[in-house]
Inverse folding.
């Protein structure tokens, strides 16, 4: 069962304790070395309580990933928004705020003890959003100066690289500052993609 707002507060609390225990243990010794007993003990619960909510540790991990990525996706806009030079893009603010709120999770999942598949799942989500925004701005791909697939791959992995750097350095800048910096880069990328000049910018 997914961790959502409809759950009883006591159930939500139990799920949160188990999630936090899993993330802490992954940071300490990696996912493969963790047992259900480890998770229950760290969460100060018993194994029977764990199995009332999840089938196994894989079920807990996958539902944790699903819930966090669903939260990320739901907070991002689905349409293209014209950026102003001095304002951070709303999507980027949300992404960095979301990562900050879930920093323990992202530090583990994007670090050496994380799961490689998570990085690709996250990159796929960001890439699909970029595809949607480009298509909304310019439906005719022949008019683009850079192939859309190449452009979205480049920007997606640039974003992820910056997010990993930010986490590894204990988030030295605020989410808004990070969003502002990437917005400036995003504007330059957009000019390249659409062949715009500064005077043509909104």
């Amino acid at each position: 069962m997914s961790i959502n707002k409809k759950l009883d507060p006591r159930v939500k609390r139990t799920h949160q304790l188990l999630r936090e225990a899993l993330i802490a243990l992954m940071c300490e010794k990696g996912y493969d070395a963790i047992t259900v007993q480890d998770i229950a003990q760290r969460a100060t619960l018993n194994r029977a309580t764990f199995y009332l909510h999840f089938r196994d540790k894989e079920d807990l991990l996958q539902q944790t990933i699903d819930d966090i990525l669903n939260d990320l996706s739901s907070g991002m806009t689905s349409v293209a928004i014209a950026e102003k030079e001095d304002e951070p893009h709303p999507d980027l603010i949300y992404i960095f705020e979301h990562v900050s709120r879930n920093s323990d999770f992202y530090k583990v999942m994007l670090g050496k003890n994380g799961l490689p598949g998570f990085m690709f799942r996250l990159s796929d989500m960001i890439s699909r959003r970029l595809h949607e925004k480009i298509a909304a701005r310019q439906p005719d791909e022949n008019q683009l100066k850079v192939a859309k697939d190449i452009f979205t791959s480049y920007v997606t992995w640039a974003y992820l690289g910056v997010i990993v750097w930010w986490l590894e350095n204990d988030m030295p800048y605020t989410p808004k500052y990070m969003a502002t910096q990437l917005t400036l880069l995003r504007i330059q990328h957009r000019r390249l993609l659409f062949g715009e000049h500064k005077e043509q910018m909104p």
Remarks:
- Residues 1-5, 198-202 have pLDDT under 50 and may be disordered.
